[in-house]
Amino acid sequence: MTDKTALILILPACLLLLYGFIPGNLANRQGNLLRQMTTLITGGQCVLATLLVLLYSLQVFFDLSLVRLPQILKIADFNLLMLDGISSLMFSLVSFVGWIICRYSVRYLDGESEQGNYFRWTGFTVGAVSLMAISGNLLLFILSWSISSLGLHQLLLFYRNRPAAQRAAWTKFTVSRLGDMTLIAATILIYQEFQTLNISEIFDSFRLQSEFNTPQMMWAISLLVAGAVLKSAQFPFHTWLPQTLDTPTPVSALMHAGIVNAGGYLMIRTSPLLFLNPTAMSCLALIGTVTTCYAATVMLTQNSIKKKLAYSTIAQMGFMMLQCGLGAFSAAMLHILAHSLYKAHAFLNSGNVLEQNRAAGWNQTVHQDQQGSPVKLLIAGACILLAYFSSLSLFGIDPLTKPGGILLGFILCLALLGWMRQALQANNRSLLIRAAGISLVLCLAYSLSFVVIDKLVGLPQVSSNHSYLAWTAAALIILGFCSMSLLHRKISQTHQPTWINKLYIHAINGFYIEAILRQRFRILTR
Known about the structure:
two-stranded antiparallel ribbon; 24 helices; 526 residues
């Protein structure tokens, strides 16, 4: 693939970005044409992105260079594109999700007077996120991210006459601009240190020299982390995401499955630099843990399916930041891919949730007051550990050499143990066998997926952080997830203690974080 041929990769994204210059009235008059063009362009980009991943995979796994893939596409001294495993996977994900959402929207918004304007800003947003995914320059990355946020702002205001939609859009706009300010400040500091913003050149300079652990770089990395936290709905800057209920469901799918993942993608993209500041990474892990535990607790109390999915996204973003804070960037990349596909399907299929629940018998009362035998629970835990470490050994994964390997393994085994406990309480041998079999399959699938993604991402191995703050963070992470496991066990019982009912009242209101922020920052109530 020559440099000129590589330009074809960004041609669809550039065409979609031109949508921003189309007048709104013209877009609505030509709604059918714009709908067809947007679906066609995103579909073409999806094909190109899939071919890129296939060619790169052949090159990595089988050493087959059927087509020469340039890693960098330069225009003068500016790195326009950076084609590696990280960018290829993200570009493919964004293209696929964008195309699916456009296809779904054809019928979902059929008959809407603003349909043309919707496809105008949807295409614009998909184009901006696509350009961000494969950008080879840090400034272009941040600029594309900011532009995608502006496109999303227009989509959140699709129903402009709804006060709730306006409040959510402007809250998101305010938080995003704060994130932009921190990222711009980080970019300035990085440029002063490296005299370039080309990502590959920054990494090359970092590999050749080890003198970049200056206070200026520590501040730059801290600002990068702060920007990712602000723009990825981390606690307490998450309040805008559950508010976005008055927007079309495909917009929610695009936002939750694509745009909100950009913070984690930034951490993965700049991962070689993050290891310079272990303190910032430990803080990121703690923020991710707090966000995960908080959002998962609130999610259990929500009655609205879209609001429940919104808090689910916040929890998943928190867990992804936890992985990045632990240095498990390959696991975080796998998490982005899995969560995006799952969450896009969850939103686009949310209209069928009541029928599915009724068919599954969820309206029936479930009694789980039986206490499972401690001996059986210990045996189940031992079997889960055996299955997990056997799957790791089968695929040649040593959790001791992987950053965060032990902690993430503990969290996975804890989740599977909770599932097995419910199967034991049901006192149904068939259900128990199925649960054990699925647990084994999940361990094998996770290990295999991790090996594939780790090979494609190709990040260098870095030793784990053993500082006092890192050990403190690890202890708090274990405490947080154990507390969540115990809370889930209490909630599943028919006769609940009084404090659970009190907790429910506070949790269903999001522990009043949104009300407190509105009171302190009047601009968020615009």
